[in-house]
Specification:
Helices cover 54% and strands 5% of the residues. By secondary structure, the protein is mainly α. The protein has one domain (3-106). Strands 1-2 form a two-stranded antiparallel sheet. It is globular, with a radius of gyration of 14 Å.
Protein backbone atom coordinates (compact mmCIF):
# COMPACT_ATOMS: atom_id res chain seq x y z
CA UNK A 1 0.00 0.00 0.00
CA UNK A 2 1.30 3.46 -0.83
CA UNK A 3 2.62 5.28 2.25
CA UNK A 4 0.18 8.20 1.93
CA UNK A 5 -2.74 5.77 1.80
CA UNK A 6 -1.41 3.90 4.82
CA UNK A 7 -1.12 7.14 6.80
CA UNK A 8 -4.68 8.06 5.82
CA UNK A 9 -5.89 4.64 6.96
CA UNK A 10 -4.17 5.15 10.31
CA UNK A 11 -5.77 8.59 10.65
CA UNK A 12 -9.20 7.00 10.27
CA UNK A 13 -8.70 4.58 13.18
CA UNK A 14 -11.44 4.86 15.76
CA UNK A 15 -11.52 3.75 19.36
CA UNK A 16 -11.48 -0.04 19.74
CA UNK A 17 -10.48 -0.66 16.10
CA UNK A 18 -7.72 -3.16 15.38
CA UNK A 19 -5.28 -3.40 12.53
CA UNK A 20 -5.18 -6.54 10.46
CA UNK A 21 -1.61 -6.64 9.21
CA UNK A 22 -1.21 -10.20 7.95
CA UNK A 23 -3.26 -9.41 4.88
CA UNK A 24 -1.96 -7.24 2.10
CA UNK A 25 -2.83 -4.47 2.15
CA UNK A 26 -3.33 -3.95 5.87
CA UNK A 27 -6.87 -3.15 6.89
CA UNK A 28 -8.90 -1.88 9.83
CA UNK A 29 -11.18 -4.22 11.75
CA UNK A 30 -13.89 -2.62 13.86
CA UNK A 31 -14.60 -4.12 17.25
CA UNK A 32 -17.04 -7.01 16.94
CA UNK A 33 -17.82 -10.03 19.05
CA UNK A 34 -15.89 -12.30 16.66
CA UNK A 35 -12.94 -10.05 15.77
CA UNK A 36 -10.68 -11.55 18.43
CA UNK A 37 -11.45 -15.08 17.30
CA UNK A 38 -10.68 -14.21 13.69
CA UNK A 39 -7.39 -12.59 14.63
CA UNK A 40 -6.47 -15.62 16.75
CA UNK A 41 -7.27 -18.00 13.86
CA UNK A 42 -5.11 -15.95 11.48
CA UNK A 43 -2.30 -15.86 14.04
CA UNK A 44 -2.41 -12.07 14.36
CA UNK A 45 -1.46 -10.33 17.55
CA UNK A 46 -0.26 -7.13 19.12
CA UNK A 47 3.34 -7.72 18.15
CA UNK A 48 2.28 -7.91 14.48
CA UNK A 49 0.54 -4.55 14.84
CA UNK A 50 3.58 -3.00 16.50
CA UNK A 51 5.90 -4.36 13.81
CA UNK A 52 3.64 -2.98 11.05
CA UNK A 53 3.49 0.46 12.68
CA UNK A 54 7.26 0.42 13.22
CA UNK A 55 7.79 -0.22 9.50
CA UNK A 56 5.43 2.64 8.61
CA UNK A 57 7.27 5.07 10.88
CA UNK A 58 10.64 3.97 9.47
CA UNK A 59 9.35 4.64 5.95
CA UNK A 60 8.14 8.11 7.04
CA UNK A 61 11.54 8.91 8.56
CA UNK A 62 13.24 8.18 5.22
CA UNK A 63 11.05 10.60 3.26
CA UNK A 64 12.64 13.74 1.85
CA UNK A 65 11.62 17.05 3.41
CA UNK A 66 8.54 18.48 1.71
CA UNK A 67 7.11 15.09 0.80
CA UNK A 68 3.32 15.07 0.52
CA UNK A 69 3.06 12.09 2.85
CA UNK A 70 4.65 14.04 5.72
CA UNK A 71 1.54 16.23 5.88
CA UNK A 72 -0.46 13.13 6.87
CA UNK A 73 1.64 12.28 9.94
CA UNK A 74 -0.46 14.28 12.41
CA UNK A 75 -3.65 12.43 11.55
CA UNK A 76 -1.85 9.10 11.62
CA UNK A 77 -0.41 9.90 15.05
CA UNK A 78 -3.91 10.76 16.30
CA UNK A 79 -5.29 7.46 15.00
CA UNK A 80 -2.55 5.42 16.65
CA UNK A 81 -3.12 7.37 19.89
CA UNK A 82 -6.79 6.34 19.79
CA UNK A 83 -5.68 2.67 19.67
CA UNK A 84 -3.38 3.31 22.61
CA UNK A 85 -6.17 4.91 24.65
CA UNK A 86 -8.80 2.25 23.91
CA UNK A 87 -7.90 -1.03 22.24
CA UNK A 88 -4.58 -1.50 24.03
CA UNK A 89 -5.15 0.63 27.16
CA UNK A 90 -4.69 -2.36 29.48
CA UNK A 91 -1.35 -3.44 28.03
CA UNK A 92 1.44 -1.20 29.36
CA UNK A 93 4.10 -2.71 27.10
CA UNK A 94 2.10 -2.10 23.95
CA UNK A 95 1.01 1.37 25.11
CA UNK A 96 4.62 2.38 25.74
CA UNK A 97 5.63 1.20 22.27
CA UNK A 98 2.67 2.97 20.67
CA UNK A 99 3.48 6.17 22.56
CA UNK A 100 7.01 6.15 21.18
CA UNK A 101 5.68 5.63 17.64
CA UNK A 102 3.17 8.48 18.08
CA UNK A 103 5.97 10.78 19.25
CA UNK A 104 8.09 9.84 16.24
CA UNK A 105 5.20 10.62 13.87
CA UNK A 106 4.46 13.95 15.56
CA UNK A 107 8.01 15.13 14.87
CA UNK A 108 6.88 15.65 11.28
CA UNK A 109 3.82 17.74 12.13
CA UNK A 110 4.39 21.36 11.18
CA UNK A 111 4.08 23.79 14.09
CA UNK A 112 0.83 25.77 14.12
CA UNK A 113 1.19 29.31 12.76
CA UNK A 114 -0.19 31.98 15.05
Amino acid sequence: MELSATLLMLARLREWDRLSTRRTPASVEPRTAWAGVGRWMRGEGRDDTLAFLQRVVERVEKLPEGSEALARCGGAADGVARLMDSTYAGDERVCASLQLLVERLRIFVAPQKQ
